[in-house]
């Protein structure tokens, strides 16, 4: 077997064939499972009443099937049972800061699943699918909290989509302009990593005395495990600030326009290194001030 051939290759179709940025494409089914396993919110692209919609919703999966809530898509399926959908899952791992704006990019992992979903009506499969969905998002909650009753099951739409037709793309590493003409510019280049972690549990103000949910407590007490750390390598990096963390860029020489605190005797190297602190601070301030989410939030199990 060719060492570059995945042990479990993905099937290639006209919809999943990599046409652009082929070097970022992957045919490894294990990569698909890792991307799905690292998240719990997907985006469902579907046409409802003649209008395209992209709906965020939680999901769960097993070896062959993706399960997700489908209250909105269910209407479309009833009207057009053979209608195709596209489900995407994306993780952002960092910003690629190049020497030119054109070469800037994003380190990411992304999966797209195509197919015709089916509405799950069998009671046993529906209960098993909802359990898989709930346990994927909040491990341990299915056995800890009250399970859905008949009325709640009847009011919940669950869709099942085969994982047989899927596409995977992954981008990691440094900018692509390190060996071109822009390499001579006095501009810092590299990657600004982005890592999401779980915080501490925040109890409901109306909560009576109760034991902590063991599964979700363990998840909240430590960062979610990264499913892949290979392509970028583990060697030391001259500058790896962490968003929201404690690591800071090295001290630098004060520049015009810096706040007064930055001018109090701080000195540092000249050249590309001098602007890295200002760059990191501006980016982090921008992200901390951003408001996540939109008008429509993810559906919950």
Can you offer a commentary on this structure?
The protein is an alpha+beta fold. Helix content is 21%, strand content 22%. It contains seven helices and ten strands. The protein has helices at residues 29-37, 71-79, 123-137, 141-144, 150-154, 214-220, 276-288; strands spanning 25-26, 41-48, 51-61, 65-69, 85-97, 105-115, 118-119, 158-162, 166-171, 190-193. Strands 1, 2, 3, 4, 5, 6, 7, 8, 9 and 10 form a ten-stranded antiparallel β-sheet that branches. A hairpin with a 3-residue loop joins strand 3 (51-61) and strand 4. The protein starts with 24 loop residues before the first strand and ends in a 13-residue tail after the last helix. The model is unreliable at 222-255, 261-277 and 287-301 (pLDDT under 50).
Instruction: Give the percentage of residues in beta strands.
Output: 15-25%
Instruction: Spell the H/E element sequence.
Output: EHEEEHEEEHHHEEEHH
CATH topology assignment of the largest domain: Pnp Oxidase, Chain A
Rounded mean pLDDT score: 76
- Unreliable spans are 222-255, 261-277, 287-301
- N- to C-terminal distance: 43 Å
Largest sheet: 10 strands, antiparallel
If you compute it from the alpha carbons, what radius of gyration comes out, rounded to the nearest whole angstrom? Answer: 23 Å
Overall number of strands? 10
Number of helices: 7
């Amino acid at each position: 077997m060719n060492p570059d051939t995945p042990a479990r290759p993905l099937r290639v179709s006209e919809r999943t064939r990599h046409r652009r940025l082929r070097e970022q494409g992957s045919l490894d089914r294990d990569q698909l499972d890792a991307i799905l396993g690292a998240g719990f919110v997907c985006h469902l692209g579907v046409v409802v009443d003649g209008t395209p919609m992209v709906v965020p919703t939680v999901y769960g999966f097993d070896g062959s099937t993706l399960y997700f809530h489908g209250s909105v898509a269910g209407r479309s399926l009833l009207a057009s049972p053979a209608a195709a959908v596209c489900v995407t899952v994306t993780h952002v791992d960092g910003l690629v800061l190049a020497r030119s704006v054109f070469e800037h990019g994003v380190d990411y992992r992304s999966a797209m699943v195509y197919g015709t979903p089916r509405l799950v009506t069998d009671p046993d499969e529906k209960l098993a699918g909802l359990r898989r969905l709930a346990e994927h998002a909040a491990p341990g909650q299915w056995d800890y909290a009250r399970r859905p009753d008949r009325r709640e099951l009847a009011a919940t739409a669950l869709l099942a989509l085969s994982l047989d037709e899927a596409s995977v793309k992954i981008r990691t590493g440094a900018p692509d302009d390190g060996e071109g003409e822009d390499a001579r510019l006095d501009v810092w280049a590299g990657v600004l990593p982005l890592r999401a972690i779980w915080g501490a549990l925040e109890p409901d103000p109306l909560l009576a005395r109760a034991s902590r949910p063991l599964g979700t407590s363990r998840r909240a007490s430590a960062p979610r495990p990264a499913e892949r750390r290979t392509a970028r390598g583990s060697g030391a990096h001259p500058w790896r600030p962490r968003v929201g963390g404690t690591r800071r860029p090295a001290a630098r020489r004060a520049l015009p326009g810096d706040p007064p605190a930055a001018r109090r005797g701080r000195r540092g190297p000249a050249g590309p290194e001098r602007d890295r602190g200002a760059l990191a601070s501006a980016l982090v301030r921008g992200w901390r001030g951003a408001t996540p989410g939109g008008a429509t939030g993810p559906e919950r199990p």
